Amino acid sequence: MKFVIDACSAILLAKATLLETVFGTYDIQITKQAYEEIAEGKKEMFADALLVEQLNKEKRVKFAEAVKEAMEKLMKDFNMGKGEASAVAAAIMMKGAVITDNRQGRTAAMINGLPFLGSIEIVVDLHRKRRITKVKANEALETLKEEGWFEEYLIEKAKEGIK
């Protein structure tokens, strides 16, 4: 299955030091809008922005196209930013799935019949696929807890899933 990742999830997975593994495990694409959102962090020398730029230079980043009209409609209807709306619009067009931790993005995906995953589910799935160790999965979940806005019970439930 093809996935389109939004900026927020890409940033969180980069902070959890899993983005390279994610790009090596799944058929991931990112929209130019989401990429530009992440690239803004280069001004502040954020490690996640620099990593995404490096992955792009290594030709490991594939780009998805979002239809402008569909993206604008999603932004209006779901009060989403450009990066999240472009990811959902691209996934609709390619009949793929969305990786998003954004509440509006998840709602838009659900209403449009798209499968979706968040960063927490990705960590658990990477562990199930034996792409990361239990220790790495727990470290990543701790990073998501610190850097994200996840309810603590979601992180704890995920930790139970990797035992």
Give me some keywords for this one.
alpha/beta, globular, Rossmann fold, five-stranded parallel β-sheet, 5 strands, 10% strand, 2 domains, 163 residues
Helix content: 55-70%
The CATH topology of the largest domain is what? Rossmann fold
CA-to-CA gap between the ends? 27 Å
Which structural class fits the helix and strand makeup? alpha/beta
What would CATH call the homologous superfamily of the largest domain? 5'-nuclease
Q: How many structurally independent domains?
A: 2
Strand order of the largest sheet: 3-2-1-4-5
Got a strand count? Answer: 5
Q: What characterizes the major β-sheet? A: 5 strands, parallel
Q: Mean pLDDT, as a whole number?
A: 94
CATH architectural designation of the largest domain: 3-Layer(aba) Sandwich
Question: What would you report as the Rg, rounded to the nearest angstrom?
Answer: 15 Å
How large a portion of the residues is in β-strands, by DSSP E?
5-15%
Secondary-structure element sequence? EHHEHHEHHEHEHHH
Spans of at least 5 consecutive residues with low confidence? none
Shape: globular
Count of alpha and pi helical runs: 10
CATH class of the largest domain, named Alpha Beta
